[in-house]
Amino acid sequence: MTTEYQVRLDRSACDGVFACLVRDDRFVEDSDGLATIDAGDDGRHRDPNANGEELVTFTDERLPAAEQAARACPVDAIEVLVEGDDE
Question: Which terminus of the chain is more exposed, N or C, with fewer CB under 10 A?
Fold first, then answer.
């Protein structure tokens, strides 16, 4: 069974350490030197909001990788929300 979850990246908090990239390959370096999320075929990408946040919904089996990336981020710019979690 696949779980629906969302990955939120606060690009305004990102400082380009890229600890997330080595834990989840959906995080990539953008042309501005900050991390961004590559939704690929797995996710439904939502446009970044005015605060520089990206929110992508996934229904794949890679939830543990997303959680590892969030834990590794030294500036807490990544949040993983699992279906049923309170925001």
Answer: N
